[in-house]
Amino acid sequence: MQIGLVGLQFSGKTTLFNTLSGSGPSDIQGQKEEASIEVVKIPDERLNELSKIFHPKKQVNATIEVFDLPGLKMSDDNKVKITSSFLNGARNNDALFYIIRGFRDDSVAHPMNSIDPLRDIEFLEVEFLLSDLAFLESRLDKLKRDVLKSKDEKLKRELPVIEKCLAHCEKELPLRTLQLDENETKLLSGYQLLTIKQLAIAVNYDENSIADVDSEIAKLKNKLEKADAPLIPFFAKIELELSQMNEEDRLTFMKDYGIKESALSKILRTSYDMLGLQSFFTVGEDECRAWTIKQNYTAQQAAGVIHTDFFNKFIRAEAVHYEDFIKYGSFNKCKEAGSWRLEGKEYIVQDGDILNIRHS
Length: 360
Ligand SMILES: Nc1nc2c(ncn2[C@@H]2O[C@H](COP(=O)(O)OP(=O)(O)OP(=O)(O)O)[C@@H](O)[C@H]2O)c(=O)[nH]1
Ligand SMILES: [Mg+2]
Description:
It contains 14 helices and 12 strands. The chain is α/β, with parallel strands linked by helices and 360 residues long. It starts with a strand and ends with a strand. The chain binds guanosine-5'-triphosphate and magnesium ion. Residues 13-14, 32, 68, 70 line the site of magnesium ion (MG).
């Protein structure tokens, strides 16, 4: 599962990426032309708590892949133009993050020469919508011709789905706001439409705006209702500095700046939710680990994520929810309280379940 960071040039994508990947500031900030990808740990307070109880030899967090794309630049005629390599780079992801510049700094150019988050967001929304429109129009033309010539049932089923999508885009609405059933989604999955992807919008503000951020975000939210995407403020430059500090210094600095919660963990949790993912835990003296699964996975499918043998030889899953475990303090106490369960292979795993797989 991969999320892509997309935006205009110098909006703070690579700064955010370096913070997420823990690689620190790069030597050639703002100069990097090529895209890069990194496996990033998902912070999880619950896993930290479990490690405090079990003192395992190692803690393994769930991960997600983050793709950092070079931003759109001003071209020779002083305009920012969408490029096919940008669109293709964006298509490659399961979900998208718009990284939008909100910070003011005269030493960093803006490709459109002024700071205007709403304009930048709408620019990306419109360009992605136009790209989907162009694809849907040409696909519909081709389908209409092919359906006459061929007896292929799949083409016949596709036609109304493409028509439905096209009608939605023509109303200037992104496809992520269109209700599609499982079959329709499947028919469209090969096309990598851009506005069908889940989206979150992260706006990068400077330290002088911290006090105004909530009202700025509220204003943007009002104007962006039809985008149907969560809006998250963050502070790329400060957060990169914070990520280099030890825990104690970091907490002091966050207090000084008036930052309540690191936006980075929020960005990662949002990505996780957008992708329809959740975590279950395995615990022990060797390892406490968060595993990533889809939200409707059964106990047997979850077991298969740990090991294919566990899928094939699945007998039962011992399950306690994290909240219950913390409440009662041990598996034995959970048993006494009736919160310890023995679940069969069809059991739908819940986010935060602690599982122990019994297998033959
Ligand atoms: N003052 C200030 N500068 C920032 C902030 N975020 C990023 N910058 C600076 O802006 C420049 C561009 O940042 P990058 O993170 O490289 O931007 P980018 O979006 O990856 O740029 P491209 O990859 O070229 O599209 C760098 O010099 C950063 O140090 C911020 O919050 N405040
Ligand atoms: Mg960059």
